[in-house]
Amino acid sequence: MKRPVAVVGVGQTHHASRRSDLSIPGLVREAVDRALADAGLDYGDIDAVVMGKAPDQLEGVMQPEQFLAGALGAHLKPLIRVHTAGSVGASTALAAVTHVASGLFERVLTVAWEKQSEGNAMWALSPNLPFTPPLVAGAGGFFAPYCRAYMTRTGCPPHIGPLVAANARANAARNEYAHLREPMTVEDVLQSPVLWDPIRYLETCPSSDGACALVVASEEQAKKGPRKPAWVKAGYSYAEAMWVPGRDQVSPQAGRLCARKVYEKAGIRNPWKEIQTVEMYVPFAWFEPMWLENLDFCDTGEGWKIVERGEQKMGAHLPVNPSGGVLCTNPIGASGMLRLGEAALQVMERAGEHQVEGVKNALGHAYGGGAQYFAMWLVSDAL
Amino acid sequence: MSRLRNIAVVAFSQAPIVARDEHRVASEILYPEVRSALDQCDVERAAIDYQVAGSSDYIDGRPFGFVTALDVMGSWPAKQDLHLEMDAAFAAYYAWVRMQAGDCDTALVCGYGKNSEGEPERVLNLELDPYYQAPLGLGPSATAALQASAYMARSGATDRDLAEIAARNRAAGAKNACAQLREAVPAATLAATPWVVEPLRRGYLPPYGDSAVCLVLAAEGKAERMCDRPAWVHGVDQRIEMQTLGARDVSRSAGARLAAERALAMAGLASANEVDVIELCATNPAEELILCEAIGVDAAAATPKKNPSGGPLCGHPLMMTGLIRLGEAFRQLSGRAGTHAVPNVRRVIAHAAQGHCLQQNLFFVLGSERRWT
Fold first, then answer.
1. In sequence order, what DSSP letters do the residues of A122-163 get, joined into one string?
2. A205, A248, A332, B2: which sits with the fewest CB atoms below 10 Å from its CB?
3. Backbone angles phi, psi at B234, to 5 degrees
4. Of chain B residues 10-49, which have a CB less than 8 A from chain A?
């Protein structure tokens, strides 16, 4: 990057199955108002707006950034709209970082959202296309075989998914913004029905209404802010083709390349030792051990052992998703930005009851498409 | 601000616009254009650092339509990538910003979308706010007609003025091998076509069509090796306005005025009249008049020359109509415009717009020489 960039404001909505108290602009404004207040800024201080969300079909509004331009305070400002499937919240924040890193903009507002209750995500994600095999009942049907392949390959035992799911709920119980906060036991998860083998009902993310907004700024502006910023040491988004013989959906190349590029740029040689917490995109519990491997926190086949030993819990070596993550809150388009924003809150030491002790470096991660799109950033408490 | 990097358009490939590409899906239309653009620069895909595309799920008629384009863009091994749900001209804008941020010297910019598989007039209604405006059933022709009426009432422009602008665009399009409508039509004939929505006649509105486009950007040091005559970016700016039609004066384009002003200032130009060619993303003659007024050029004057390609009135493939304007600027500056070439072109303005009534406007100012030394 041409110059340093920092996160100076983080805002998110309270998440629920239906925020029927709010219109779409109202939902977006709840997050944006909080991010601006957090940064000690007002709409007039913003130079450009970068908005992201998942498919427009989820709410039935085409390119809704056009309709939201007024609510976003973007009138007569530059605006771009990002869409990179499930990773979009993260790639959107990275596009905002690029705006500031370029030297052309000082303070950029970025926002990602989804109001899933306005439509039917299952229908929107399961189109019946000519000459193409159907996606079979939403994302779970698509990703379940990869989870099964992971178990077969690594010997991952059947209680790992439930351990991940129960831990996510325990974490979300401490996050006032999370959608699902009721604690549950491993036994509860094991008793829940299988939706798509091996994925059980309680190993599955919810459908949420919600939004996340961040303000990113140049070094000069960040140092003027009321609070300690989170410095973006590196951030990249990668994608890989769908139809490639030998493509490995269990540990996709785009994820590995992206993580390695981020670590290289941020000067991280050993992620397990040098990163204190990670907010990763886990829509189905089995992806937690898969991503621990894909992100080089351990060797191939070792991810589930980290979970089994409980090293990913709060207070342990590498707390994973201290916010509760996607398993407890999933406004699809915003889910990636929530991961990046939560990572920023950790290094700012402002994560409240789900704060991890002594975080110097935190990784925020998201993925999307057929495990093809990856976007992540590494944030640090020091420039 | 430290000096900006000199970045140039070094290749552009476009599938000729047709009403319906009967036997190919959107990504199949795109693939030969990606190969052709890379061939123009004599490089393989591995030589490109970044890729960014512009398309719309609603034009594709499915969620995640852009995923299929990853394959034909050469995303293996995995590539640094972004996708914008916007006209691909904005993808080019973002690629330029990304290249300014460093550690990226070359970018592939793609635009696609098969308009013929849907009904754009109904689909674009869904861009409007879902509570107050969309339920009225307004399509882009209806909102454009409201805008044209407002402009004509304020300026005194007549039906005849609109016909003449349409005729000039149609005559230019007749010389452009990539245009969809390639027949010169006299103003009197266009003025006799039926109203679609008064005051806009059939002959004043663009044909939606199928196409796909690929453009390559490169920074100085590489651009010169990839192209004999790169088209250097001298200035860029884009602005959106709030959508609500009643909340802004649609007879004017405040966003186009501001974006053009900023792009010209970045280019070190005092006026848009200092360029030789202007490619406007005007989807009807009234928009062309509103845009000319906003950027401060005389719509009737011979110079700067407007839309030598024929403009959107001779082919309007949604999600790439804007990027084609940038591609046309490259063609004019690099000696690749063929039968629609304008002689002695040194500077060009390329404009892109999206949304109802010119809601969002983007301007590139390009030149045959580097901007910054």
1. HHHT----TTS----SHHHHHHHHHHHHHHHHHT--TTHHHH
2. B2
3. -100, -30
4. none
CB contact under 8 A, A83 and B84: yes
Residue A8 has pLDDT above 60, yes or no: yes
* pTM tops 0.90: yes
Which residues fall within 8 angstroms of residue B108, CB to CB, at 6 or more apart? B34, B37, B38, B45, B48, B50, B51, B52, B73, B74, B214, B215, B216
Tokens standing for residue A231: 């410095």
Chain A contact set for B68 (CB, 8 A): 242
Contact B148, B355 (CB under 8 A): no
Instruction: For tokens 């969620």, name the residue.
Output: B63
A173-182 pLDDT tens trace:
999 999 999 9
Give the separation between CA A58 and CA A27, rounded to whole angstroms: 15
| Interatomic CA distance for residues A64 and B247, integer angstroms | 17
CA distance B88 to B53: 6
Residue A247 falls in which region: left (phi positive, over 0), alpha (psi -120 to 50) or beta: beta
The verdict on a CB contact (< 8 Å) between B77 and A257 is yes
**Closest residue in chain B to residue A75, using alpha carbons only:** B241
Strand runs labelled E in B26-137: 50-54, 79-84, 106-114
A63 with B56: Cβ contact below 8 A: yes
CA–CA gap between residue A46 and residue A77 (Å, rounded)? 9
**Complex confidence, ipTM:** 0.98
